[in-house]
Design brief:
The chain is an all-beta fold. The chain has two domains: 257 residues, no CATH class; 85 residues, no CATH class. The chain contains no helices and 25 strands. A hairpin with a 2-residue loop joins β24 and β25.
């Protein structure tokens, strides 16, 4: 049954679905910039297809695992009004499909905080498409399919939470993808173009990469650049044939990459020990105090705990003795009765981790 109305006579239009698993197709919205169409899909596991929007559109739900697809046959050209997707009681899988569009893009995928709520925002994915927004905590996954024209996509932040995944599928055109931050998992599929993926914040550190990043180069000549050269804190870096990791940041996994360019920051040095009284412990090892004849400086460095060591205190501590390559002597005390030849005297040794 069709329901007819005069769009010019409406300020807002709300359509509410029921409890079943329904399918909704939006071919267009009200035309005024202040005339909002709200589609509430109901409590079932629903599917929503947004093919075009002239005015603002909100796709909401009262429950259920919904799937919302934005785009018409792989084109976002018809999305001219802002679209907001939310699902307060449950989670929605959001698919944004511009895979058939041919115009070059300069898109941004961001997470912003509005009135205390984290809201996702995707802009300029296909000119002149409008902004696509979503409540970050209401999504189960987000898949963005870029077009064939290439360009630049900047991901300032991914969906939060270890169970929520963002997938970016690149088209045939050559893309530059800037991954500046992640809170949850991010997967980048390169497609057939020659793509460049750069991972690192605007300050060239991996501190903001807190969700796992996976880069699948697929076809074409693909370059992965990892930028941590702006980090001044010493770190441990680990690289294998398919992964790159740094302490304090999430792991970057890659395949089908023809050029890997890791740019490291300050590297934590291997084990070392200072001999002789009066030597200064470097500031990076702790507080940087003189290595006196009777006391080992208290402090912490990269998770290692150092205890004061006087002739009457217990040392070394179990917290310090973590790495086989950095073990101290087996002596458990610094009592005055312990011979100098076996006591790990603070006047003779200072240790750091690898």
């Amino acid at each position: 049954m069709a329901i007819n109305f005069d769009p010019a006579a409406l300020t807002d239009l709300t359509v509410k679905g029921g409890m079943g698993s329904d399918t909704f197709t939006v071919t267009d919205t009200l035309s005024g910039s202040s005339q909002r169409l709200t589609l509430s899909t109901g409590s079932g596991d629903d599917k929503g297809f947004v093919q075009a929007s002239t005015g603002p559109l909100t796709v909401s739900s009262t429950g259920g695992a919904d799937v919302v697809t934005i785009g018409n046959a792989g084109s976002l050209q018809g999305i001219k009004g802002t679209v907001l997707v939310q699902n307060p009681p449950s989670f929605t899988d959001l698919i944004i499909d511009g895979s058939a569009d041919t115009a070059p893009v300069n898109a941004t995928m961001a997470i912003v905080t509005i009135s205390g709520v984290q809201q996702g925002r995707i802009t300029s994915l296909t000119p002149p498409s409008a902004e696509i927004d979503y409540v970050a905590g209401d999504l189960n996954s987000r898949e963005v399919k870029a077009g064939q024209g290439g360009g630049t996509v900047t991901n300032t932040m991914s969906l939060p939470g270890s169970l929520h995944t963002t997938t970016l599928d690149l088209g045939a055109g050559g893309y530059t993808v800037n991954v500046q931050g992640t809170a949850g998992a991010l997967i980048i599929n390169g497609g057939s173009g020659n793509d460049t993926v750069k991972v690192g914040s605007t300050a060239s550190t991996l501190d903001t990469i807190q969700g796992a990043v996976t880069v699948n180069g697929q076809d074409g000549f693909d370059t992965l650049t990892i930028n941590d050269q702006g980090s001044t804190t010493p770190h441990v870096y680990t690289q294998t044939a398919s992964t790159f990791s740094r302490d304090g940041a999430a792991t970057i996994t890659f395949s089908g990459i023809e050029s890997l360019q890791p740019n490291k920051g300050a590297v934590r040095a291997p084990c070392a020990r200072l001999r002789g009284r009066g030597q200064v412990v470097p500031a990076a090892w702790g507080k940087g105090a003189a290595n006196t004849s009777s006391t080992r400086r208290c402090g912490t460095w990269r998770g290692w705990t150092w205890k004061s060591c006087t002739r009457s205190s217990t040392w070394p501590s179990a917290a310090f003795d973590r790495s086989p390559s950095c073990r101290v002597r087996a002596s458990t005390t610094c009592a005055s009765s312990t011979p100098d030849s076996t006591r790990p005297s603070a006047s003779r040794y200072a240790y750091r981790s690898t």
